[in-house]
Structure formats: structure tokens, C-alpha cells
Amino acid sequence: MDQSEIINLWKAYDRKLEASLMLNKSNAIEITRLKTKSLLSSMTPLKIFTIIVGMLWVGIGGTIVVNLFVHAYASVSPFFLYSAAFQLLLTAIGIGIYLYQLVLIHQMDITDTLIKTQKRLTQLKSSTLWVARILLLQLPAWTTFYWSMDLIKSGHLPYIFLNSVVTLLAIAVSLWLFINIRYENREKKWFKLIFEGKEWTPVIKAIELHKEIEAFERE
Amino acid sequence: MNQEEQFLEMLENHKGILYKIANAYCRDAEARRDLVQEMTYHLWKSFGNYNDTYKHSTWIYRIALNVAISFYRKDHVRKEQTDILTDSILNLKDTEVPAESDQHLFLLQQFISELREMDKAVMLLYLEEKSHKEIAEIVGLSESNVGTKISRIKTILTHKFSTFKNQF
Fold this sequence. Notes:
heterodimer, A: 219 residues, mainly alpha, 79% helix, B: 168 residues, 2% strand, globular
């Protein structure tokens, strides 16, 4: 079948459609009356809520930690101070990513060219993977904040040893995940275990499409 | 004529575009119905900001293809929003579905559906005999790049047809 035959085939299909396709006007009118928000704007309230909660957490926590650093450094456990500061810093970065996503949502224009719109949409989705990496990086902070200098000085070796093992494991796991949570590992069993499900499948597909668009532009 | 009437008139004049895109991106009837609904919804939402420097068809293709390409990321949120209407917006008058009435057409549609998301869009626009300039405006590539893509996709399509012919 050559090119002109293919085009003629499509034209014939077009004619058949023209003759038999009917627009259900009452349904189309109903669409114009809908007050529901689009998929993207429906994502906004949840993100704004997360940002507000995160900012409160970082703001209040940050104020307390900074005050402790400045005014009570000698009397507060340095383990608590540095763990809390680390956790707050990573939460602040997470909030930064959410803010970036809000900017992308705000810039989204469905009437723009396919490449521009789809790139923004896929960037929006794939940046969610970064949030997971950042959040998992916090893991060690939750195993060290309750340590104290008294514990070290007490010389209670089994307890110190056990806590150190847990912390080292948490560091190793969070670093490993931070490095390895990448699209390239999507077929690995551990990756599927963490990221399979309703929330993550669209993220992985978005990254897939992003790569496809990049290749499409290059080809 | 108020905005709603203008929108319905535009939809009536270009309803085939929505059907053909939905058919290329969704082979499942229920998903296709949802996709047409979502495309209509986004067209209406953007209708107030219609930029008349573009033809109606160019504008519709941009929105409808953008929605169709994003549609595979369907999740529960989207499902809730697209299940508002129980009936289809577009219906075929007779029971004979054009897509299955002709073996070649059926094959062509199958080959199109096998293409990658962006190639599929270019292919549909090529079959609609859109100019390279218009395809470039819709997709966001340069005209020369569009030319290269079309000739590559045409080769794929012709090859698929000849492979099929040789098999049977």
C-alpha cells in the first residue's frame, strides 16, 4: 500500500465519520456547566496545604532550633540539635520542590504546543520522585536525635553499639536509596516494591514520556 | 450568538477530530468515551482564551492531542472527574463502526496506535493533510524537523503494511 492509498483510505474514513458521527449536544452543554476543577488545579489545594504545614513545621522548628543553637548550645544535646537541623533543612528542600511544582502548574497551558506542554507536565510529575529521595534521606536523623553526651559518657557499650548500628544502617540505606532512586532502576524488584501503585505509576510513566519527547526532538 | 452556542458550533464542525484522536490513543471504548469527555471539557475551559491567530482546527488539535497524550496517566482523581456524564458526547449513528468495516482501515488504525505518543500525533496530522507549517505549530517543532519525522513515520507505516501483506 503506497502513500496515496493510505491518504485515500483515511479520507474515506473521514467521509464515513462525517456521515455517521453525531454530537450529543445536551451532554456537550452539560460539560459547559460543570464547575469541577481541572486535574492540575485539583492538585493545587493539596500542595498548598502540604506547603503550609511544612512551612509551619520548618518555621516553628527552625525558630526553636536556632534559638537553642544561639542561647542554649551548651545545655542541649548536640545530637538533638544537629539531627533536628538536618531534618528541618531537608523538609525545607522538600517544600522548595513543592513550590517548584506549583510554579509549573501555574505555567501550564494546555493550548500550548505538544512539546512544551508535555515537557512541563512530565517535569511536574518526575519532580515528585525527588521528594521521595529527600524524605528518605531524613531517615538517620530520626535515629540520632535522642542521643546524648551522657549516654556516650555512661560507657554503656551494648546500648551505644546497638544505637550506632541502627544509625549506620539508616545512613547506608538512605544514601543508597538517594543514589539509586532513579528511573533507570524502575525494573528492579526493590524499586517496584517502593514505587508501584496508583500514586507512583503515573510518575514513572511521565518520566518515560519525558525521555521519549527528548528523543523525539533529537531524532 | 453567545459563547456557549459558538462553542457548540465549533464542536459540531470539528467533532471528527476528537473522535479520530480518541480512537488513535484509546482502543478501549470506555476509555475513549472518557477521553472525548475530557477533551471537550478542556476545549470549553480554554474557549474563552481562544487565540484567533490560529485556525480553529489548529487550536483544537493542540488541546485535544495534549489531553490525549496526558490521558494515559489516568488516576482516581481523573476518573472521578471524567465519570460525570454517563452517556457519550459523540455517537455513531449506525451500528456499523467505520473502524472495523474495512480491513485496511482497521490495520492502519492499529499501526497508528502502535506508534509512540508523539509520532502518533504527527501521523494523525499528516493523514489529515495538514501542512508542515501547521503541524509545526501544533507539535512545536521546526518545519524541516516535521518533514523529517513525517518521512520516517511514512516509511514505518509502509513497511508495516508490506510486512502484513507478505505474511498473508
